[in-house]
């Protein structure tokens, strides 16, 4: 087990009706100028916007709205937000939405305190920002767990790169499962699969340790509650479980003692940069194909995954047969919950795009094997 330092600065307010409690506690001692950041306006239709505005006004806050944050947030949008934050002398950023909104705000928070370009700072000079406008997150769509860490996935349109960049931690996060009731059901399922993906990506990283046992629990619970929602879409208990599964999968706990590189995510990010595809759907297509390609590099862990997560009966089977049955169970589950099983189903059929994705995806050596551009191309071709 590797050495590590663990600290989670995010204070979580979990449960129905926790919004007012959180804002009362967390914003009473911050400045008056609040940036309220959100996406396409669904929070105005579902009532969350009115709830937030009413509370902020009652606390005598000046609200400056920053809206239209898109799925797969762009670097240009980050710069727009940072410019506004500087001009309006924003004291606190309140991100209301899913992972895209929260990720965008993490980088706005950092860029607004910098005189130089944050992309250049991190990728050219290998330095990280150290000052931030404080921010909080109100989660309306779970799955990404963006509220639990300081990593953000941003698409740089000019460079045609979608990748992780480091920004601010939220000082607090509101996780009210009832907010997910207004999210399109397909998005709920897609987000929940992202949670499963986070746990799997960490699980197959190097170094087996106690974190893997926690991962197995999160994976089993996520699978169980996705199935529960498929039969009972309004089940708030299942949604509560999935929302906390999401937070647990990316709050750093599963990564303790591990080395990982999130291969499926890296490939999907570049696919998203070139096609703007749905993140969870892309992961669902890539995962089984990727695992059939690499499973021999960590056969023992794939066998364990099959037995502990999918309850595969190993009696009379070779280790390889057990491992492959686990991957087959994953494929069957993806089909069961209505996610796409091929890129063609997602409208992606251009082989030239796949070649560009393969050539631009960066993979380290944190999993079963370090993938080459050729490996990634072969995986993506099979995904068609």
What's the structural blueprint in terms of helices and strands?
Blueprint: E1 11-14, H1 18-26, E2 33-37, H2 42-45, H3 48-58, E3 62-66, H4 75-87, E4 92-97, H5 99-111, H6 118-123, E5 135-139, E6 151-156, E7 161-166, E8 172-175, H7 185-203, H8 210-231, H9 236-249, H10 263-275, H11 279-294, H12 299-310, H13 319-336, H14 351-360, H15 373-383
Parallel strand pairs: 1-8, 2-3, 2-4, 4-5, 5-8
Antiparallel strand pairs: 6-7
Short description:
This protein is an alpha/beta fold.
Number of domain units: 2
Tell me the name of the CATH homologous superfamily of the largest domain: Dehydroquinate synthase-like - alpha domain
How far is it from the N-terminal to the C-terminal residue, by CA?
38 Å
Question: Looking across the biggest beta sheet, what order are the strands in?
Answer: 1-8-5-4-2-3
Order of helices and strands: EHEHHEHEHHEEEEHHHHHHHHH
Mean of residue pLDDT values: 95
Cα Rg: 21 Å
How would you characterize the overall build of this protein?
The mean pLDDT is 95. α7 packs antiparallel against α8. The radius of gyration is 21 Å and the shape is globular. The two termini are 38 Å apart. With 384 residues, the chain is an alpha/beta fold. β6 and β7 form a beta hairpin. It has helices at residues 18-26, 42-45, 48-58, 75-87, 99-111, 118-123, 185-203, 210-231, 236-249, 263-275, 279-294, 299-310, 319-336, 351-360, 373-383, and strands spanning 11-14, 33-37, 62-66, 92-97, 135-139, 151-156, 161-166, 172-175. It has a six-stranded parallel β-sheet, with helices on both faces. The protein has a two-stranded antiparallel sheet with strand order 6-7. It has 15 helices and eight strands. It folds into two domains: 11-179, Rossmann fold (3-Layer(aba) Sandwich); 186-383, Up-down Bundle (Dehydroquinate synthase-like, alpha domain).
């Amino acid at each position: 087990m590797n050495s590590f330092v663990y600290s989670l600065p995010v204070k979580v307010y979990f449960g129905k009706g926790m919004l007012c409690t959180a804002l009362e506690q967390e914003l009473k001692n911050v400045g008056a100028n609040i940036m309220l950041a959100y996406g396409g306006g669904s929070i105005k239709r579902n009532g969350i916007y009115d709830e937030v505005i009413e509370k902020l006004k009652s606390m005598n806050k000046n609200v400056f709205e920053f809206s239209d944050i898109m799925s797969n947030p762009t670097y240009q949008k980050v710069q727009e937000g940072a410019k506004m934050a500087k001009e309006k002398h924003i004291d606190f950023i309140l991100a209301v939405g899913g992972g895209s909104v929260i990720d965008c705000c993490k980088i706005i928070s950092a860029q607004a305190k910098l005189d130089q370009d944050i992309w250049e700072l991190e990728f050219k000079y290998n330095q990280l920002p150290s000052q931030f406008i404080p921010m909080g997150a109100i989660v309306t769509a779970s799955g990404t767990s963006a509220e639990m860490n300081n990593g953000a996935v941003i698409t740089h349109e000019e460079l045609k790169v979608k990748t992780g960049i480091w920004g601010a931690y939220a000082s607090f996060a509101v996780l009210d499962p009832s907010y997910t009731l207004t999210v399109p059901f397909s998005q709920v399922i897609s987000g929940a699969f992202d949670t499963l993906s986070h746990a799997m990506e960490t699980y197959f990283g190097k170094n087996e340790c106690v974190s893997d046992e926690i991962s197995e629990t999160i994976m089993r619970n996520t699978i169980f509650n996705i199935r529960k929602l498929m039969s009972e879409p309004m089940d708030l208990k299942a949604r509560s479980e999935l929302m906390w599964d999401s937070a647990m999968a990316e709050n750093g706990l599963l990564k303790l003692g591990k080395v990982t590189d999130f291969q499926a995510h890296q490939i999907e990010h570049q696919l998203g940069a070139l096609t703007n595809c749905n993140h969870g759907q892309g992961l669902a297509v890539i995962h089984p194909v990727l695992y059939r390609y690499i499973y021999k590099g960590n056969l023992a862990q794939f066998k364990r995954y099959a037995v502990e997560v999918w309850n595969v009966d190993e009696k009379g089977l070779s280790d390889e047969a057990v491992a492959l049955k686990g991957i087959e169970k994953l494929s069957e589950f993806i089909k069961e919950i209505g996610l796409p099983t091929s890129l063609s189903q997602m409208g992606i059929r251009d082989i030239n795009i796949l070649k560009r994705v393969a050539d631009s995806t960066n993979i380290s050596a944190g999993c079963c094997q370090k993938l080459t551009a050729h490996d990634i191309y072969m995986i993506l071709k099979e995904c068609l």
